[in-house]
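Many introductory courses stop at the sequence. We go one step further.
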Amino acid sequence: MEDLNNLSNAVSEMKTYATNNFKYKSPGIPKKVVIILFLISLSLSSISQTNQKSIVVLVDSQISNGIAEDLNIFKTDLESENYHVILKTNTFQSPEEIREYFQFLYTSTSPSLVGAILMGKIPLARQHFVVTYLNPDLSPTTHNCLSTQFYSDLNGNFYKNNPQYPESYSKHDGDTISEIWVSVLPYYKSIHNTITQINQYLKKNHAYRHGNIDIQDGFIEVNEHYNADNANEYEYLFSSMSSGQFSWTPFTEWGNVGLYFYNSIGEPDVAFAYEEELKSNKYTFAALTAHGSYYTNGELSIPEIQNMTIKPIFVWLGGCNTGNLDYEENIAIEITYSSLSNALVTKGGTSNVGGLGNNENGFFGKNIATAMLEGKSIGEAYLYHNHTPLIYPWSIEFEMHYATPIFFGDLSLTLNQIASTSEILQKNAYLDNVCVPNPLTNYTTIYYSVPKSELVEFIITDETGRRILHKEINSQAGSHSFQINTGKWQNGIHFLTMRIGSTYLKTIKLLKIK
């Protein structure tokens, strides 16, 4: 409320200033000059508000003092990125009161409210719904789960009209799209532990925003639903993950890409991905596709997560119930709060559903990836998908896809906040992105440049990740080129990566044809 009052006072002061100067001529200053100066001031004020957005952070009163220092740093970080931040200590007793407060902010705050972060033990509403499957052999399933949709959809109507579930909202109609994104940093075992975990999280968030987490552009998907028994099956499944209907393209064409699934032909698989790749700094976004529970996401369980290094900043869990807040511990919380994890956003589910469905733009993973690579925050990417109508058959079960997802962390984060490597990529076009010819036949020439003497490493792999070439060159400052023989390569897509120590990495595609 204090922020809103300050905003109202500022507007009143500006109106008074304008009225006084337009009515009265100041001694020695022409009225026309006063008007011009006012218009310039107003213009600069307008520019400063461009693209500005509001975020409300609702904090459990039991932890507010314990996290105050790191929370104020977090607020400063957001403000430096042109967000207007409303810090509010929670005094509300019910989800209905909280929703009314968010509705008030959404309709009254300038700049407009785009998101809410709930810290500590904040009441959540329950939603009850029944899922009926197209497969006649599957019986309908009943869901009664905690949900943040009650807070994100501020214009829709929610009703408690099922006597079997009197405390749950069993009907949702009207304008059912979400107006804001909502995320949680929830209570964890005790007040002391919650304060410790949230402070640790906020320090990690600050480090990422200031480029102090060593992470590279890249995407990894581990799909435990896929299993290849032979080379043809492997190639088909790899292609499906890379560019199929349910692929996370364009993430699968961005920076380092790792696609892993079960196979019996000796290619890197699920175990390799969990044991080696997730603890490397090659990937910013990880999609872990598997069945789940509050305790597991596929092969990963809470005890394993507590002792496992996880480097990606964004972790998308595909398993059901992985974020179920009916349990003080769930695997999504553990990934977000673990001291061994870089994760700043973890997507889980509060019931037996893992995905967001397909809409008129396609698969939800494609929509999230597209929006984030355009510079949107992950919260904005979620809303981008949510605001486009689902298509059949996903459209018949709207609540299944939007009542159950839950995000842990801070949804204002973007890929553009990747640390020093990304800054170097923008400042130094080492790899000239020129490979002539490309598509290639028997030979091709690679052109690159370095600003100083460097040991430069080149790696070429095929679509399966098999290494075809590894070359290290001590290069002097300036432009260089070298030729490679591609006559014996298999037809298809290959990937050329140029690496300079831990400071630079870039990958481009090569297409081999006969």
